[in-house]
Amino acid sequence: MLEFLNRTFEVDANTVVVVALLAGWSGVLTMHVLSRTVLALIFVPGFVFGALLANYLFVEYGFYPTPDRETNVVIACTLGIIMALLVLLIATRLATAIVGTRVQRHRFRRV
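RESULT FIELD:
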C-alpha cells in the first residue's frame, strides 16, 4: 500500500492531466445520466482512485497493450474509471437496498 501511495504522488504531468480530464468528464457524464449532481460529485474521487489504481497495476505487472507510453496511460485510466464506475454503482445499489429494508421495517402500519 505504501508503494502505491508513493507512486501515486510521483506520477508525471501527463498522467495527472489524463486522470483529471477523464475523471472530470466521467463526472459530467454521470451527472447528466443520473440527474444527480451530488452523486456525480461523490463519484469523481472514486473515478480518480480507479484511474490511478489501474495505471499503477499496469506498470506493476508490466502490461503494455501498445508500445506508446502515453497511449497506455490513457487505456489504463479509462479501464480504471470503468471498473470504478461499476464498483460505485454496485455499492450505491447495495446501500439503497439496505436503507430500503430498514425504512420498511420502521414504517408505521395502519391497523
